[in-house]
Design goal:
Elements lengths: L10 H8 L3 H9 L3 H25 L1 H70 L3 H9 L4 H19 L1 H4 L2 H30 L8 H7 L5 H10 L1 H31 L43 H4 L8 H6 L6 H26 L4 H6 L1 H14 L6 H21 L5 H27 L3 H4 L8 H16 L6 H23 L4 H21 L5 H42 L11 H29 L3 H27 L14 H12 L3
Helix pairs in contact: 6-8, 6-10, 8-10, 8-11, 10-11, 11-16, 14-17, 17-18, 17-20, 18-21, 20-22, 21-22, 22-23, 23-24, 23-25, 24-25, 25-26
């Protein structure tokens, strides 16, 4: 190797890089020569090569054995590769077979599904169209019972099936089955018609409980009616007509018998002469000869008759029980009982018709007869009914019955109850006007009695008005209020005319007070709803009480009252200074006269009040008002005396105010 062959290019860079190498750094630090070190390294490498050769020589047998084993493995792996390749080919073949089988399975599943659908439809068709022998036996020879009802339902489905389905009509099977089905239909219709008509005839038997028969027997076989309606229209119309005819006659006879029984229980309350303004003597000799006197009070007074509105939904009267007890009732009691029976019967029949026949209109055809019977009865009763209170009670009974039917949600009696209500109002108005005209046209001379106590006409009016107000307290009928106001004006005029027949003004006033007080008391007894009428009579009572007080005081203390009203009043006014002054001589007789007899005069006033007024409490109120007014007059007289020159000389004769107050309190304690 020459120096030319050796290139030192890049040596410096390599030296720089080797500075960090531990071996190079160690060599450099020891100063070892590179040639020597390289020779040592070369010797080491040669030694390691010799050692490796020796190791290979030692392990040569093992290497040969390893080589043989590798060769054997290659042969085995080659066989495995061949075997796996065969498996792969077979798996591919199986996969294609599985796919084919899958396609065949899906095809078979679809065919199976289609066949099942076809089978179900065919089975249903066969089931719907076939006529089982058992069904034929039941329809032809069986008894009409629950099993027969179920068989009719099956037959009805088959009949509908062959009539409705177009595919069935074109099938050959129908030609074999249809004649048999038609014969079965005819036989079933004929058999159930005979059966149901027989059941309907049972309704005509006397003393039959129709509602129990309907609920426990007929409703069990209501499917017969549905079957006839669908598959025997003509026979259904016959059955429907037979039921309408039967129930019309049965219910008409039932209501006619009930009305005849009720008429025996009727208590006659009023006749055409039982009017407010008719003279009492004219109605007692002839028309009332056979009637107990106690019944006459019911003409104008409500009494316990109002209870009928509280018993509105009580069961109807049982006539033979009431007749056996010899009981008699005002007509409104019989009216409520009749219409209670009508409501209950109509409700039951309406619901039955809707359930059994499936139509509500049949009810009105059935009840045309009962309505006619009741109308005939009412048309005979109302023209002869002169009981205004009874008529008003009947109007309110009808209103309550309308509410009951509304709560039941049964509309079948709406038009009938409206018609009855419309017929009652004109009759009430006519009877009311008879009372009104009896007051307007009353004969004052025959009505007048020389008696200052309440007049019987006024008592009749008070009771009559209180009764109508009480009955209508919850209704607020404006038309009735207007009529009552007309009646009040007429009785006011009549009472004034009767009062004027008394010769003395005081008696006239007492007569008016007694009548007004009695009227107010009767109106209050009827309830707290006297309203404008009661306020009117209270105002009249106050004004006439004031008149009476002045009249009774003038009887006993006329000079004192005249002095107080004229001289004492003028002396109290400053503008009256031009008049002559009051002197002791002018006042002294008045003071001495009062002191000598004031207690006796008060006692006479007390006796006068006791004998004049029917109502003790009212008389005592009037006496207290009179004594209070007397005290006011005497107080003004005392004040006047204090202003007179020398008036103090009369103090010994003046009655002290406390003494008069004590006397007033003494009479006040008597009530």
């Amino acid at each position: 190797m020459t120096c030319e062959d050796v290139s030192l290019e890049g040596l410096q860079q390599e030296l720089e890089e080797c500075k960090s190498d531990e071996v190079v750094a160690n060599i450099l630090s020891k100063g070892t020569k590179l040639r020597e070190y390289a020779k040592g390294v070369e010797n080491n490498i040669r030694q390691m090569e010799l050692d490796s050769i020796q190791d290979y020589i030692v392990e040569s047998d093992n290497l040969v054995s390893l080589h043989d084993q590798i060769h054997d493995c290659d042969a085995i792996l080659s066989q495995m590769e061949t075997l796996l390749s065969g498996f792969q080919a077979e798996i591919g073949s199986i996969s294609s077979d599985i796919k084919i089988l899958q396609e065949k399975s899906m095809d078979m599943g679809l065919k199976l599904k289609n066949r099942k659908v076809a089978e179900s439809k065919l089975a249903k068709f066969v089931e719907d169209i076939i006529v089982p022998p058992r069904m034929v036996d039941i329809v032809v020879d069986g008894e009409v019972n629950d099993e027969y009802m179920r068989t009719l339902e099956i037959l009805s489905k088959k009949l509908k099936f062959v009539e409705v389905d177009a595919m069935v009509k074109s099938s050959k099977a129908l030609k074999d089955v249809q004649p048999e089905l038609e014969r079965l239909r005819q036989k079933a219709v004929s058999k159930v018609f005979e059966f149901i008509v027989q059941k309907l005839y049972a309704l005509r038997k006397p003393k039959t409980n129709i509602q129990i028969l309907q609920q426990s027997v007929l409703l069990k076989y209501k499917y017969i009616v549905s079957f006839l309606k669908e598959h025997g229209k003509e026979i259904f119309i016959e059955v429907r007509g037979a039921y309408i005819d039967t129930m019309n006659k049965v219910l008409s006879a039932h209501f006619r018998a009930y009305i005849q029984a009720l008429e025996k229980l009727q208590l006659d309350i009023a006749t055409s002469s039982d009017l407010i303004g008719v003279e009492a003597r004219s109605t007692s000799l002839f028309s009332r000869g056979r009637e107990p006197l106690k019944n006459r009070s019911a003409v104008f007074a409500l009494g316990e008759r109002i209870n009928i509105l509280k018993e509105i939904d009580q069961p109807a009267l049982i006539p033979h029980i009431a007749e056996a007890s010899s009981l008699k009732y005002p007509y409104e009691v019989l009216f409520r009982s009749l219409h209670k029976l009508l409501m209950d019967t109509a409700t039951s029949e309406y619901l039955f018709c809707d359930d059994f026949f499936g139509e509500e209109s049949i009810f009105y055809e059935i009840f045309a007869g009962p309505f006619s019977v009741i109308d005939e009865h009412l048309n005979s009763i109302l023209p002869n009914c002169f009981d205004a209170i009874g008529l008003m009670l009947m109007i309110r009974i009808i209103h309550q019955h309308q509410l009951i039917m509304s709560r039941r949600r049964i509309p079948c009696l709406d038009s009938y109850l409206d018609k009855v209500n419309i017929s009652l109002w004109p009759r009430f108005k006519m009877v009311f006007d008879m009372h009104l005209n009896s007051l307007r046209n009353a004969n004052i001379k025959t009505l007048w009695e020389d008696d200052i106590h309440p007049h019987y006409v006024m008592r009749r009016y008070a009771e009559f008005t209180a009764s109508l107000i009480h009955i209508n307290v919850e209704y607020g009928d404006g038309q009735l209020e207007l009529n009552l106001e007309r009646l009040r004006m007429s009785v006011d005029d009549l009472l004034i005319k009767l009062a004027k027949l008394f010769p003395k003004p005081k008696l006239q006033t007492v007569f008016l007070i007694n009548n007004y007080d009695m009227t107010i008391a009767v109106l209050k007894e009827a309830g707290s709803e006297g309203g404008k009428i009661q306020l009117h009579f209270e105002e009249l009572l106050r004004s006439n009480t004031a008149i009476f007080v002045e009249e009774v005081l003038l009887e006993h203390f006329s000079d004192l009252i005249k002095f107080v009203k004229t001289r004492a009043s003028s002396s109290e006014e400053p503008s009256s200074s031009s008049e002559r002054p009051i002197t002791v001589a002018e006042v002294e007789p008045l003071v001495k006269d009062f002191a000598s007899r004031w207690k006796a005069a008060i006692e006479l006033m007390h006796k006068d009040v006791i004998t004049s007024f029917s109502n003790f409490l009212c008389g005592m109120e009037i006496l207290r008002a009179a004594l209070t007014q007397l005290l006011l007059y005497y107080t003004r007289l005392s004040d006047c005396i204090k202003r007179i020159n020398g008036g103090s000389a009369m103090n010994k004769d003046l009655v002290s105010i406390s003494s008069i107050m004590y006397e007033i309190r003494k009479y006040s304690r008597t009530f």
